[in-house]
Amino acid sequence: MKRVAVIDVGSNSIKYFLGALNADGTLKTITDQNDIVRLGEGLRETGMLSDTAMARNAQAITRFANDARANGADKILCVGTMALRNAKNTTEFITRVQADANVTLTVIPGEEEARLSYLAVLSALSTVGEVVVFDTGGGSTEFIFGNGADITQRFSIDLGAVRITEKYFSDDPVAPGSVDNALNEILANLEKGGVIGNPKQLVGIGGAVTSMGAVMHQMTTYDPDVIQGSVLTRDEIDRQVADYSTKTLDARKTIPGLQPKRAEVILAGACILKAICTRLGALSIIISDRGLRHGLAYEQLKEEI
Question: Are 129 and 17 part of one and the same domain?
């Protein structure tokens, strides 16, 4: 049985997936992990990846690549997204990853990121009629508009939780009025980016939405089977925004279901979700635990048949 590993290097976290195909052609998970190592930390101000960020991210990639080899991966794919699309010293980081982890890091465009995310969602959820899938990360948010299996539009917006956090939520706890200011900017970016419509289904993927699902379920141990297909209502999103905005960073780190490393950026992520619901007139978001890494692995494994 062929095994494919995908290491997805984002602005806030690195996600690692090792999978194979089941006999019925569906995707089998062997391992699915993540590490929040903040590659995009400080990128907005300097335009550069910092030495410390590159060092800890190269170390994480090396750890995941070694795990993939130890578990029989026939192919290891390593892809980068918004932080690496924007940084002036991306080539330096790619060279470092090649030397340390012995893997080739490929930077993919936002449109390809969106396509793979949509493919991942279709492999796990039944979609009916018009659907919008979004993936909000540390540095960007991808949108895929579709109708069933057909993609009608896909694009990426330079809007992520790390940038919003650094611009609006540097105080601890956050300053009065900062949430409203952040929401206004997010809504303006969504409008400018062409996010418009009234879909029958709104599906969210990525760390922010799955983390909010875990908080909703008060999970002490993350369970992807519970998260997959769960629904975040507007009321629940509003509740979490209000809760995060009144707590200190240390207090957010103790919230059941929330990874302590994600506590710093979760308020910004929740604000982005709230604004997307507002912009698209949605009363709820369906959570998909699948993401880019699943879509890429699934596509590669299908090609091996």
Answer: no
